[in-house]
Amino acid sequence: MLKKISVSEATLGMYLQSLEGSWLSHPFWKTKFVLTDPADLAALQRSGVPAVWIDVSKGCDVGEDPAPAPVAAAEPAEPVAAPAVAPAAPAPALSAAPAPEPALAPAAPRLPTARFEDEVGRAAEVLYRSKQAVTALFNEARLGKAVDAESCLPIVEEVATSLARNPSAFVSLARLKTKDDYTYMHSVAVCGLMVALARHMGLPDEQVREAGLAGLLHDVGKMQMPLDVLNKPGSLTDAEFAVMRSHPERGWELLKDGAKVPEVALDVCLHHHEKIDGTGYPHKLAGDQISLMARMGAVCDVYDAITSTRPYKAAWDPAGSLQRMAQWKGQFDPIIFQAFVKSVGIYPVGTLVRLQSGRLAVVVDQNPTALVSPQVKVFFSTKSGMPIPVQLVDLAAQGCTDRIAGREPAENWNFGHLEDLWNPNSKR
Predict the structure, then answer these.
(1) Cα separations in angstroms, 333 against 83, 197, 260
(2) 8 A C-beta contact, residue 319 and residue 347
(3) Residue range(s) occupied by CATH 1.10.3210.10 in the chain
(4) What is the average pLDDT across 315-339?
(5) How far lies 244's CA from each of 221, 222, 250, 273, in Å?
C-alpha cells in the first residue's frame, strides 16, 4: 500500500516508491528502493524534497522499528546519494559573460560493472525506447508545443544507467544511425556523451543529470527548421545555412516557455555552436564567456555529428574523428576536449588498428585504467595479406606483448564486416 509522508518522517527500512518535487532536485538517480544507508537518509533530508511516497507492503511504515521488520530486497540498481552541493547561483543574463569555471579534477576511472558483450543488448533496447520517446517529444515541439523537461526523466535515467554498466556499449551503438533517424538519435547520443563526460570530469550527480538533459534537448530548435533544408542530401546554399544557424535561438525560444527546463539546458541549447576563439554563433562568445556545460556540449555535438551517417556525408571513423577535432585550433576548450577523449577512449570501440605484430584488429572494449591498451579482435595479417582466425586479445592483460602501432584508416582496406566484429547485434 502506498502512503505519502513528509521527508522528516522518513526512516531507514522504508521502501521509497517515488519522490515529490523536481527530478533535478532529487538526491538519487533512481527511486523504488529500500532506504538502508544512513548517508542516503541524510542526503534525502537535506535535499529540499518536500515529501515521498512509501510502499508499506515492501518496507517499514511510519513508527515501525526497521530492525526486525522483513524488508523487500533492493532493486538491481541500488541508488547512490548525490554529494551535497550548494544551490546553483542564478543564471546570468544572456548578454552577460559567465564567470570562469573552476578547474575540475578528473574523477577516478569508473570500472564497468558489465562486459561490453553483456551490455550491448540492453543498450540497444535503451536506444530504441529513447528514440521513440524523443521522436514523440520533438514532434510535439515541431507543432510549437512547449517542452516539459521532467518528461525526459526516463530517457536520461535509462541512458545514465546503461553508461554506468558499460559506457562503451551505449556510446558505440549510438553512432549507428540511419540518415532518416539522425535528428532524433543525435540528441540521444549527445545525452549519453554528456553524461559520460560529466562523470569523467568529476561533476556531482546533480550536474551530471543536468548535462544529460541538456544534451537531450540541445537540438530541439531543429524541429523549427524546414524539412527540405534539415534533410537536404547536398550542400546548403548560403540562405539555407543562415536558416539552419537560427536553430539554437529557435530552440531556446521553445525551451524557455517549457515546464521546469533548467538554465543549464537553455544555455547549452543556445550556445553549443559557440567556439573558444569567438567565431561561433549565435553570439560569438569566446573563452570563459562560454559556460562549462556549453563548452562540453560543443565537443559532444561535433563528435557525434562527424561519426554519424548524415543525409549529405558518410560517417568518419571514431579515432580519426578525434584526430581531426584535435587539429581544429580555436574551436574547443582544450582541457574539456582532453577529458572527452579519455571518456570515449583514445581508440573508441569500432576503431581499426594495426598491432606491432603486423595484425589488424578492431577495438571491442576499453580498459579504463589503460586507455592505449584496449580489448581488440584480431582478424587479418598484413604480412600474408590474408584473413586469420578471429581472436579476442586484451592488450592490457599480463603477459600480452603486442601493442597498438597506430590507427589504420578503414577506407584503405575496404573491409565490409568491421561492425560484425564489435557489435553482436549486427544484422548484416
Answers:
(1) 26, 13, 29
(2) yes
(3) 116-344
(4) 93
(5) 9, 8, 10, 12
Q: Which of the residue ranges 72-86, 149-163, 244-258, 268-282 would you say has the lowest mean pLDDT?
A: 72-86
Contact between residue 229 and residue 249 where contact means Cβ atoms under 8 Å apart: no
- Residue 2, strand partner residues: 55
**What's the grid cell of residue 332?**
574547443
Look at residue 176 and tell me whether its pLDDT is greater than 60. Answer: yes
Would you identify the CATH topology of the domain 116-344? Hypothetical protein af1432 (1.10.3210)
pLDDT at position 142: 86
Q: What is the pTM of this model?
A: 0.78
Angle among Cα 302, 24, 146 to the nearest 5 degrees reads 70
Q: How far apart are CA 189 and CA 304, in angstroms?
A: 7
C-alpha cell at 212: 544529460
For residue 403, what is its C-alpha cell? 601493442
For 390-400, the pLDDT digits (tens) are: 999 999 999 99
In angstroms, the CA 128 to CA 376 distance is 27
Q: How far apart are the C-alpha atoms of 70 and 51, rounded to whole Å? A: 24
Query: What is the spatial distance between Cα 330 and Cα 125, in angstroms, rounded to a whole number?
Result: 38
DSSP string, 233-283: SSPPPHHHHHHHTTHHHHHHHHHHTSBS--HHHHHHHHHTT--TTS--SSS
Query: What's the number of CA atoms in the CB half-sphere (13 Å) around residue 352?
Result: 21
Q: Which residue has the cell 522528516?
A: 8
Task: Give the mean model confidence (pLDDT) for residues 150-161.
Answer: 89
Q: Residue 142 has what DSSP assignment? A: H
Which three three-digit cell numbers place residue 126? 535503451
The mean pLDDT of the chain is 84
Q: Are 215 and 297 in contact (CB under 8 A)?
A: yes
Element (H, E) at 183: helix 182-200
Give the amino acid at 270: L
